[in-house]
Write a structure and sequence with these properties.
single chain, 3-stranded antiparallel beta sheet, alpha/beta, binds 4'-deoxy-4'-aminopyridoxal-5'-phosphate, Aspartate Aminotransferase, domain 1, 7-stranded mixed beta sheet, Aminotrans_V_dom
Length: about 400
């Protein structure tokens, strides 16, 4: 699949309705199924490289496949948006999405994969509701940026959440040595945000939970499936899909099965992991289209050779961007401690100040590099370079950065 896609990146395989794989000629009864896998022609085909933090750029090959299947899904005569979530087509799509995700992350049988709604923000409440016995049950939070701070504040409503370490005084530019995290041995879980999307701080390894149940929980929204992860080390992993693996509307949760079924009595049915685990994520109407797109992204990542390959590409892309910042003689500044710089979200400022940042962002947009504005809470520039950002996009950005500096010394 990967090899075929690499040699004929945009060839359309004609397939007859309901009989994938048999090429025939012309006529209205044909599906166009562009191959997934490496196919990165964004600038040539779309006119832009999209550096948005989320919703973010999706693989062009996935969009093309979805486009080809949009009106008549696999010969059903219906879009996947128009059919029962309990029908055979969607059943196959969600099962394949789960199987491919399990293969990508080597999710062990001890863990359930759930496709949920309400965004990662809803998990800020769901996690303490499912893991803590009540509001006086302690839980530990590493607060390394805006997102883990939000998770902590929400958890306080449903647990005795406390801050085991905070990076606030250092303006969220670092992570602690793990022995500096003041873990409460009575805590029900230790919560981290594996990649702070706004501040660009990423865990390169994970702390060992010292609490009595040994539960580590991670919000992986912005680096989910960007590299291999040892899932067995986590009690709960959750991620809003709209950065690395799909559109907004679906949140993936990977939950250790023995932690399911002990939710607080006040837990709304939709926030109880057991509801979704018992019903294979089909308790109510799921976000069918979003799950289907995630399935295509998982297939695409497998076609690229899996997450070890994807990680190499991401490290290379991030490397050339950080090298450009660091070699600029202080013209561009990334405040984040080098050891924890995110491979997904690269925030930087221009030493010449906000007016030059505005000019930089406007000129970049004219050259087809869009959505580079930093988050409104921190300003500056932010280049989000998720899995689907092609290397050519980052190469174009660094060439532009060098040129901008030369023109505006
Ligand atoms: N956690 C992180 C790390 C995020 O980046 C975001 C969204 N940007 C959220 C949580 C909130 O996600 P959602 O909008 O899906 O609720």
């Amino acid at each position: 699949m990967a090899a075929a896609a690499a040699t004929t990146p945009h060839s359309l395989l004609l397939q007859p309705r309901g009989e994938p794989g048999r090429a025939v000629e012309g006529g209205r009864h044909f599906l166009l199924t562009p191959p997934l896998g490496p196919c990165r022609q964004d600038l040539a085909e779309r006119g832009v490289y999209n550096f948005a933090a989320g919703p973010a750029t999706l693989p062009l090959s996935v969009l093309k496949r979805a486009q080809a299947e949009l009106v008549d899904y696999h010969g059903s005569g219906m879009s996947i948006m128009e059919m029962s979530h309990r029908g055979k087509e969607f059943d196959a799509a969600i099962k394949k999405a789960e199987a491919d995700l399990r293969a990508l992350l080597a999710v062990p049988d001890t863990h359930a994969v759930l496709f949920l709604q309400g965004g990662a923000t809803t998990q800020f409440a769901a996690v303490p509701l499912n893991l803590c016995a009540g509001p006086s049950d302690p839980a530990d939070f590493v607060v390394s940026g805006s997102w883990s701070d939000k998770a902590f504040k929400e958890a306080k409503k449903f647990s005795a959440a406390s801050v085991a370490w905070s990076g606030k005084d250092g303006k969220y530019t670092a992570l602690p040595p793990f022995d500096a995290i003041k873990q409460n041995p009575e805590a029900r879980f230790l919560h981290i945000c594996s990649n702070e999307t706004i501040h660009g701080v990423e865990f390169k390894d994970y702390p060992e939970p010292r609490n009595k149940s040994g539960i580590l929980v991670a919000d992986m929204s912005s680096n989910f499936c960007s590299k291999p992860v040892d899932v067995s080390r986590f009690g709960v992993i959750y991620a809003g899909a709209q950065k690395n693996v799909g559109p907004s509307g679906v949140t993936v949760a990977i939950v250790r099965k023995d932690l399911i079924g002990a939710a607080q009595p006040i837990t709304p049915v939709m926030l109880d992991f057991k509801t979704h685990a018992d019903n294979a994520s089909l308790y109510n109407t799921p976000p069918c289209f979003a799950i289907y797109i995630c399935g295509l992204v998982f297939e695409d990542l497998l076609a690229q050779g899996g997450l070890a390959e994807v990680e190499k590409k991401n490290a290379h892309k991030a490397g050339i961007l950080y090298d450009t910042i660091d070699a600029s003689g202080g013209y561009y500044v990334c405040p984040v401690d080098k050891s924890v710089r995110s491979h997904m979200n690269v925030p930087f400022t221009l030493a010449k100040g906000p007016d030059f940042e505005k000019q930089f962002i406007a000129e970049a947009a004219k050259e087809g590099m869009v959505q580079l504005k930093g988050h409104r809470s921190v300003g500056g520039v932010r280049a989000s370079i998720y899995n689907a950002m092609p290397l050519a996009g980052v190469e174009k950005l660094v060439a532009f950065m060098k040129d901008f500096q030369a023109r505006n010394p």
